[in-house]
Amino acid sequence: MSRTKSFLQWLTRTKLGFFTIVLTLFWLNTYFIYLTKFNLGAVGSMQQFLLLLNPIPAGMLLLGIGLFFKGRKSYWIILIIDLLLSLWLFANILYYREFSNFLSFSIIKTSGSTSDNLGKSIVGITKISDFLSFSSVVIILILLLTKIIKIDVRPLKIKVNALIEVLALTLMGLNLTMAQHDRSGLLTRTFDNNYIVKYLGINEYAVYDGFKTAQASAQMAKANVNDLRSIKKYLKLNYVKPNPEYQGVAKGKNVLVIHLESFQQFLIGYKWKGKEVTPNLNKIYHAKDSISFDNFFNQVGQGKTSDAEMMLENSLFGLQSGSAMSSYGTSNTFESAPAILHQKADYTTAVMHGGEGSFWNRNNAYKSFGFQYFLPLNYFKNKPGYYIGYGLKDKIFFDQSIKYIERLPQPFYLKMITVTNHYPYDLDKKNQTISKTDTGDETVDGYVQTAHYLDQAIGSLMKWMKKTGLYKNTLIMFYGDHYGISGNHHKACAQLLKQDTFNDFDNLNSQRVPLIFHMKGLKGKIDHTYGGEIDVLPTLLNLLGINDKGTIQFGHDLLSKDAPQIIAQRNGDFITPEYAKVSGDYYYTKTGKEIIDPDKKLKEKLMSLSNQVTTQLSLSDRIINGNLLRFYKPSWFKSVKPKDYNYGEQETLDNLMSKDNKTSLWYKNHQRTTQKDFKTDAPELKK
Ligand code: GP9
Ligand code: MN
């Protein structure tokens, strides 16, 4: 008998052979679906390699369970497991089509009522080719029924079964190690479910998500309404009255929040080779109608951008590890800025971002926050050369946003998330209009270039606002979300900042990011108050004249004379106008001298500050981990129900582009677009 023939015999006549066939079909099937139905963005040979191989370990482990059974049962159980895996694939294809994200247990749990009206639209969005996810099941079934595969009833040695499972786990471990190597923090930072699937596989994702969900619901089950009561008491005790001088000065104005990606304070006024890096922002920073803070700190943890967003929208901290928006954004109840503004002052609320909607779980979390509109990448044309790093280049993003901004009913609360100034600060030649710095540190030297690019994009947007008149009735808020150059680049940082050295205390100092409120007629100043991202919401609410008494917010109005000025960092470090704590060591803020031998009084002071910081952080954590805001029902606030929000493209465009939005800029401009008033020098858009 020839070798091939005996191999074929082995495949079709033995149990192990059957297992091999199912596993191979399952593998190829899953890989095919990865490539055709999801947008996983595997770039580079490592990611492509992992994407190709990642269905194998899970398939082996799960299908292998069937091998433990005897006789015919074993075959059927393997087939049923394959069917379940295919079903999971199928369900994800449908969900992904609508939401560019994978199903999660918290979505499934709430889907009876909700959320995404999946049930309703399931038929509408299914394509014939989606059923290809069942092809391995169908092929096996045919092979069995036609008796091409003959059932082998002999039991397998238990040792062989166990070996297969051990091998599967080993492969899984190997896969994980390689993935972590390519993308550190893959599991701890939870940026995007797409990443988990791309690196580890769709079934590993299910396990991961299940684990996270179980962890969260255990913590939630333990929490009760009394936990919230004690936190309310704490907040009441620490409440500071907002500054009456600024109360309501921006009442009824549009609020345009510009998220300056990775933008550090030192860029303001910074010159490279005699050229200002951010001339437009510098002008805004110093304008007479800008309140600009120069001691404002980012307070993010691993969740980076998403932590900044969590703080700005909710005045709650991110978590010690991972991203609160990813882990709790779908299932938790919030009392967020968009909901407050909508309910108290009839604002239309929206976010626009030139990146994928699933990143940081935005497409779920924003519903929980109460954003009416979310326009991520799929709302924008994305031609070759438009996209870099994590999203559309800022100039292209702004250019294409105009047609949506002008349609928003006013007053609006709109956040625009820029992304070009993001590590690794890459920019194509034709967009480089300032030279790189020369520290020799590759990850640092492009920073001024992308920051310069972002600044130019902002310049165009401002011109458009002035031209169209939107400028007159809008409060524009700029903020940097977190550092751009991490503390690991001591030498380069010292060089950029023209210092001899750069130590841990300098690193804390360079966590300063801009916070600017700019509005025509605003009584401006450079404000030296120490503040952080947690404080933005109370400050903004006061400017808009919205009473925030009784809200569950950990920040304080930065314009208040009584602002406590103790700025927590997510790891328990802090800075005040007098003292700072950096990795367990204390410093004098003004001189940067380390406090070596504090006397008793000073020691007590430092301890007390330290305790205040950990108290804040842990109380905020309790709210998020225990989902405590589900117990919060003040008379003036209606809890947000994510199911009331539909981010489906059709519905979004129907509402947004409706001719009935009589308060929109477009309507006021005699129902004509203002797109031609937006001038851009983006080389990609040159006619
Ligand atoms: C992507 C962007 C980046 O959408 O917001 O997030 P980051 O890496 O800065 O946390
Ligand atoms: Mn960011």
TrEMBL record:
InterPro entries referenced in this protein's UniProt entry, alphabetically: Alkaline_phosphatase_core_sf (IPR017850), LtaS-like (IPR012160), OpgB/LTA_synthase_biosynth (IPR050448), Sulfatase_N (IPR000917)
Binding site for Mn(2+): 261, 305, 481-482
CDD domains reported for this sequence: LTA_synthase (cd16015)
Active site (catalytic residues): 305
Membrane topology note: Multi-pass membrane protein
Alphabetic keyword roster: Cell membrane, Manganese, Membrane, Metal-binding, Transmembrane, Transmembrane helix
Residue ranges of domain Sulfatase N-terminal in the record: 253-546
Compartmental location: Cell membrane
Protein name as catalogued: LTA synthase family protein
Organism name: Candidatus Lactobacillus pullistercoris
